Amino acid sequence: MDRPKLTHKVGDIEIKMTYGLSQDLQRVVPDPTNVMNAVLVDPFVRDYLVRRALTPTKGAVTDESELIAIDDVDLTPDEIVELLTWIAGHLLHFFAQSAEQMGKLGRAFEKMIPQPNPSTDGSPA
After folding, report:
1. I want to staple 45 with a disulfide (CB 3.0 to 4.6 A). Which of 6, 38, 77, 101 is the partner?
2. How many other C-beta atoms lie within 10 A of the C-beta of residue 68?
3. Number of domains observed in the structure of the chain
4. Above 80 in pLDDT, residue 44?
């Protein structure tokens, strides 16, 4: 799958996936195996992701009161789904790319890293 677009236009707003925005979103969904479930099922996560993406604050948002008000989210259900899909795509891409790069790094250094000597008789090594 291709890298998600860096910017996403929703209504009259253009949102750019910055490092700060990405970090805030990852704090709410830190587990790559849970991204889709969290976005689909958890209304609190979904609300935070939408409101954080629409909040023009640069840098970390440390308190929910810094987010735009829920009543100020003026998006159609289709626009919300598109926005959440864009966000989930960025989160999954980051997790997948990080795992791939860490795997390459691990393979590159595996000969230098001492491997544990597993026990053959069932007792601890």
Report:
1. 38
2. 16
3. 1
4. yes
